[in-house]
Design goal:
alpha+beta, TcpA-like pilin, five-stranded antiparallel β-sheet, two-stranded antiparallel sheet, about 15% strand, elongated
Amino acid sequence: MNSRYQPKVAVKGSAAAADGGWNMEGTNLPKGWKTGATMMETMGVLLVGALLTVGAVMLISMAMNSAKLSDAQKSLTALSIQVRGHFSGARDYTGLTNALAIKAGLVPQKILRGDSLQTPWGGAITLAPAANATFTHSWAGLSDQVCTAMSTYQPDLWQSISINGTVIDADTAVSQANTLCTGNANTVIYTDR
């Protein structure tokens, strides 16, 4: 091995030993070579680090939003099943309120916030009896993306679905949802059998 490019070995009592052996002044680098990183190299490393951090945050955010959507869809279905079961011996859903659903233990934990029902994004959920022995779930405060996903979730399960007051057709639910979910403060109402 060529000793010309090797750092000097720290010998007890030498200048190299005094600073822990990191004295670069005594190295045998070719003329014009400098040690350490330049400002541009440092900025490049910082930029790459920042880009990786932003990418990681975006992936985590997307994963969390996907988990919230999955929780919301499962909670919607579970709430429907629980309410139907609770009122199975009745002619209709007279008396159905959020308070009754909470008291009867019908509400999935993922959407129960104290004495109210809330979407995973903080919007209000309201249960109410409706005409012709049906009831409604109203999910408010949904972003456009969530509104589209929620309003197209198993459209055949519901007697009807409305977005911001407009009833959609199960056969064209996706295209209608893309048109009707606007303003990032959407309300989806499910009319349940």
